[in-house]
Design brief:
Low-confidence stretches: none
Mean pLDDT: 90
Structural class: alpha+beta
Order of helices and strands: EEEH
Helix content: 25-40%
Strand content: 25-35%
Number of helices: 1
């Protein structure tokens, strides 16, 4: 139901809460610990898009078994 961890050089706390709603599972994500600096505000924006992508990939995997595989490099 809940998964929490810390990450980064200036640790941020990442929290995932899962609940059964609307005939499925709702995932709520919260990240805290950023400083009020231009650098951290930039990181917040980068992380927002990254978490969106990660959660979309998780949804594809859970619903359809689709796994992302990076393209192979050609020699």
């Amino acid at each position: 139901r809940r998964f929490v961890f810390e990450r980064g050089e200036t640790p941020t706390k990442v929290e995932f809460d899962f609940s059964a709603e609307f005939g499925g599972t709702v995932v709520r994500r919260k990240e805290s610990g950023y400083r009020d600096t231009p650098e951290d505000r930039h990181l917040i924006l980068e992380c927002a898009s990254g978490w969106g992508e990660a959660l979309t990939l998780l949804k594809f995997y859970l619903e359809h078994g689709i796994v992302y595989t990076p393209p192979k490099k050609e020699d």
